[in-house]
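Subject: sequence -> structure tokens, single chain

Hey, anyone have a minute? Need the predicted structure for the following. Not urgent.
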Amino acid sequence: MRLPDSVTGSFLVVLGAAAAYGGYILPPVPGQPVGPNVFPLVIGVGLALCGLAIVFGIGHSFEEAEELVPLEDGQAAVAPPPQGKLDGKLYGLRALLPPALLLFYVAAADRLGFIITAAIMVYVTSTALGAKWKLALPLAALSPFAIHLIFGKLLRVPLPAGLLPTPW
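Reply:
Had a minute. Here:
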């Protein structure tokens, strides 16, 4: 049984509102501009906004164009869906990717450092989701630095340096 989008979106709105309320009632840490209350508040608001987008169908096309294939007698038939590299037997392995990457991060972050480990994780994830290497490589190179600037510099979360010295 498949749930309608309005039910799924409404559930996400309620879950996001609960997380945002939980973050709102947490007391801030004196002297710190960003305390433990900010993360659940931001995630909750974002989740609720995504739920509202699902409920109202924002950014979702309900019509999918079917590709027609001409037949010998002038008729046209709907083409079968394209077979990707993750179809068939390998499709189920995609579910193992998040826990495998999490285990990789736990095992390698202290030795390799955050930047290298995150770059490998972003590259593997993006290529597994079907991105070409021309997109996956710059994404893998730039996103760990952006995450480092946000968490390491702005929020002052200590990230493992590993092989790379961190004068930046």
